[in-house]
Amino acid sequence: MPANPEPAPSSPLPARQSEFSFRVGKRLSETCAPSGQQVACNGGEFLGRTGTITTPHGEIQTPAFIAVGTKATIKAVLPEAVADLGAQAVLANAYHLYLQPGADILDEAGGLGSFMNWRGPTFTDSGGFQVMSLGSGFKKVIDMKTAPVADTAVPDDAVAPGKERLAHVDEEGVWFKSHLNGDRHRFSPEISMNVQHQIGADIMFAFDELTTLQNSRGYQEESLERTRRWAERCITEHSRLTSVRAGKPYQALFGVIQGAQYEDLRRKACRDLGAMNFDGFGIGGALEKENLGTIVRWCNEELPENKPRHLLGISEPDDIFTAIENGADTFDCVSPTRVARNSAFYHPTGRYNLSGAKYKRDFGQLQEGCDCYACVNYSRAYIHHLFKAKEMLSATLISIHNERFVVKMVDDARLAIEAGTFFEFKAETLGRYYS
User: Which residues carry out catalysis?
Assistant: First the structure.
């Protein structure tokens, strides 16, 4: 099913919206001509494509992996090193920056990029994920398993075992307690827009309600409708702030698609938000790994084809290829740096733990032929020693390599779409990695 054309505007466009744009390049279905069997195995047409996102701080060639700098830093890595490893953009977290140091500080500094000395494009998420997940005691992840039986198997207000619910949703927004000191705060669509305008990223996301796969069908429907109403409020406030802050670079606003594992809800969310004046879209919410490609395809069959789609929170190689071939243009994940802090490094033949004793006298590179700073200059033995000695440099070096590994893999996938060799590249890459 082809993607829908851009719908007619539902409200006046924000001033200066033309400062942001997206241009579709090559389509996977045209350059690679997938067979009927491949299409059948995918469950539908391949919607992958290359493209160019243009922002006030530069272009992003898509598909692209967006490095996560939660608190205005890619953990343990200098911004200059992030640029050197090929990352085109970084994503920071509105929830964390709101709590510390405060969005007003970033505004006074000239925005996120100036504050962290990053010259390229920037993203901020709305804070919705952190408000809901931390507020339910799940910390950095939420339960991505479906309920064992239908609807009432798990309470809709469930929290992590032994934890107190710190976030409470109502029609106007969310009350939540800071995970830092317990202070009580309020987020609403309007507050989230104000916070993100002050942070000053090139691309930001509408405030939405996160649900888990454990929530009942009834609550998913209620939540989806609330997210739709919040999306309309986000657009209104974003347009007002864009006019008020006329001297600032234009910030693009992406709507967030929820709907959990339900096809009708995902498609409805895409039609509803696709008819609004968003600059692009984020595909969010809880996704079962085995259904990731199907859900991404459902969404991209409905969303306007001439606007970019960002998939929130994935970085495993198989998930990346599945997302790309089903139409995701950009995506982000903290995994490359998170696993690096536990000594895990990516390699074409899998993920390995550098803390193992076999690396004590291994003077080879983390990955032979890798052009990243860590591989060019340091050995596995040295980084193994740093990790064992609890030296912070170990996290820096492995993080640089892991970010480069994922960035390059996505860059190569983009080149493969253009060259007509995507499926061969996918088979070779995943065949080696999971062997």
Answer: 125, 332
- CB of 325 closer than 8 Å to CB of 34: no
Instruction: Judge contact between 270 and 303, C-beta under 8 A.
Output: yes
Q: What is the pLDDT of residues 295-330, one digit of tens each?
A: 999 999 999 999 999 999 887 999 999 999 999 999
pTM, 2 dp: 0.91
Token pair for 332: 């982000």
φ/ψ bin of 312: left (φ > 0), alpha (ψ from -120 to 50), beta (otherwise): beta
Amino acid at 121: P
Read off the pLDDT band of 1 (50, 70, 90).
Answer: very low
Statement: residue 141 has pLDDT above 50: no
Helices 292-302 and 317-325: crossing angle, nearest 10°? 30
Q: Parallel, antiparallel, or unpaired for β 58-62 and 49-55?
A: antiparallel
pLDDT mean over 153-167: 58
Provide the percentage of residues in the chain whose pLDDT is more than 70. 88
Q: E-assigned strands of 202-297?
A: 203-205, 252-257, 280-283
Average pLDDT, the chain: 90
Distance CA 149, CA 154 (A): 9
φ, ψ at 425 (rounded to 5°): -65, -40
Contact call for residues 119 and 57 (beta carbons, < 8 A): yes
CA distance 251 to 19: 9
Distances from the Cα of 91 to the Cα of 82, 207, 312, 415, angstroms = 12, 16, 11, 23
Q: What's phi and psi for 83, nearest 5 deg?
A: -65, -40
Judging by beta carbons within 10 Å of its beta carbon (0-12, 13-18, 19+), is residue 141 exposed, middle or buried? Answer: exposed
The rounded percent of the chain whose pLDDT value lies above 90 is 78
CA separation (Å) from 407 to 61, 68, 285, 316, 334?
12, 12, 23, 12, 13
